[in-house]
Specification:
It is built from 26 helices and 13 strands. The chain has 715 residues and is an alpha+beta fold. Among the domains are: 139 residues, no CATH class; 106 residues, no CATH class; 32 residues. The strands form 5 sheets. A 5-stranded antiparallel beta sheet has the order 1-3-4-2-5, sandwiched between helices. The radius of gyration is 33 Å and the shape is elongated.
Amino acid sequence: MQDEILLTPWRNFPVEDTDPFAPPDEEKWDFVLVSNIHQVGSEKENKRKKFLDELSKKGFTIKKIEDKKLFYGVRAPNQIFQKYQCLLRNPDRMLQNPTVHHDIPVTTRIRIVNFILQNTMTPDLEKLHDLMKKKVFEATFPLHEKEEVREFLKEKWARWRDVFCQQPIEKIRCYFGEKVALYFAWLGWYTYLLGIAAVVGLVVFVAGITVFNSSQVSKEICEAHNTIMCPLCDQKCPFWLLSDTCTYAKEELAMELINNLQHEPRQYQHSYFCSTIVLLLVLVMIAVLIGIAHALVIYRVIATALFTQSNFEFLREQANTMAVMTGAVLHYITIVIMTKVNRRVALYLCDLEQPRTFSQRENNFTVKIFTFQFFTNFSSLIYIAFFLGRINGHPGNYVRIAGKWRLEECHPSGCITDLFIQMAIIMLLKQTISNVMEYLIPWIAHKLRKKQQRPKKRSMMLGEDEEVEDPCKRQWLSNYQLNEVNVFSLFDEFLEMVIQYSFTTIFVAAFPLAPLLAFCNNLFEIRLDAIKMMRLHRRMVPRKAKDIGIWLQVLEAIGILAVIGNGLVIAITSDFIPVQVYKYTYSPCMTENSTGVDCLTGYINQSLSVFRIQDFEPHTKVPEMLPDFVRDEIKECRYRDYRNTDDYSYTVQFWHIFAARLAFLILFEHVALCVKLIAAWYVPDVPQSVKNQFLERKHSNLRKELSMMEYSTEV
């Protein structure tokens, strides 16, 4: 069998495609189809031939090269692109001057050819997608070509040394299309803003540590050597001193017509039954994800009990912290697993809806996958931030799981510490392990494919080494050895960044270092994505886009959630409101008109309630938890709450704090949303420099087009 076979089409080509024997260095191929070598006359071979015949009927030039695989280079006739220009420009003008046309960008050419390939149907009513499922074809991809733009991007963009350099967005658009360029433009701008937020967060974090020693509240905690706190669990949990917490306090329709002139647009449809089924399934999935968060709660409760019974002193003393840390690691593992499950469920739900267009399908998929990912990532954090330590009851009347295990309490230093630890561990794991695997897996896969696809060793007899010298073969093989581009690859990058944006905004009040971690990650993320796209992956099929699409609405929703989330963290999770209520209502400055003392003097004692040890539940076996030398001396212990000593009901101060928290939350959210709206009005959506660039480009293009029309008329 010959190594190269030219399959001539069934009808005449335009003049530009009439030289099938052009020199190799002038051959330009739009796509390459790869197939295994099948037995002559087999079903797969017949299906392959039928598909290629359909392409030939449409005027495609097809070139075949055989190695360990069968490679088919396909090139579309220029007639197709002239029709595209005619449909999208001014049809009347194009009909009057059919010779006037412009060369279309390479990205548009690839996009049109890909659309035709994906929608060409064989006599058996099978499309390329169906043939690839049946292993008739193994792969299809556009080629990375040795052109000026690609070489520029490889040298000036896809290198680690350029991590602090500005991105060549226009060059990216010329090579990968508008959708990819918009992603990197948005990512670069987002990272730039993260730099500002990172500086602010770092200053807040350092300032908090710096003023820690001078804080009156911290002094009272560190000096409370005689304040005995109630046990944090039932068995083998000792009473502890408050001072122990001192450290912690610190365009599709036009292409359809080009592909098939008889194409009829798909009608809009809506099914209430189908929508109801999808809605119910979404709710079921959300319930499952919330159930996983509850499972993590149960894990931490049981883990705390087990750690307190450990033979290691460190585990017993740090049982609560170790439970939170291991729970955070387990939470990360569930995120990794459920991300794959969420994708399959979201795709299944989209198939049920049967969206009319690809863009509608993408939007529906985006909303569903983000909803699932949000609950996967944040259900546990929401519990820790707003429910942990608030629904567990109080000494003598604890809420228990299965009537046995007490619900966990907040960290001894406060609930915000648990949230800080949880977010720090999850963000560090996501941004280290995920990024390492994101680069290593494609790199290793590329090396393995390259090793497996090495050309066969041939003798140097006359003619046997000719195929090795064929530039087409070398180019096609080198492109085939690259990793396959997942149809959701760019979507995954957007989703990753949007989830990261959620982490850096929704709970930033509890973890001010989140923007700094995200900023450092994104500096490498940009170059990592660039290296993957230019050196490790096949060329991505370009797609048109005028903005980042539905992700903009998702980001807007996250912004609103961030306002609500941070307002709740400040009002409920932190001690900001209780401190302010005490300072301006119950402090010595207000009750005794004292000016020589700190107004927060006595806050810690005021925020702790008293519990009589004799009121413990019988099965808690409190005497076994008491040290021998004080077993008979301790009559009461303290716990964080605002309850009366006699009947353990809420005090008046509790209701004052509750009202203040509610008032602050309403005021904070309204002020923050107003500031957000004013900023959105004050700052233009599109910078003036960008508008002027578009204006100049449009003006220049119109002048060129007018000049060409005048020249054509004169000729």
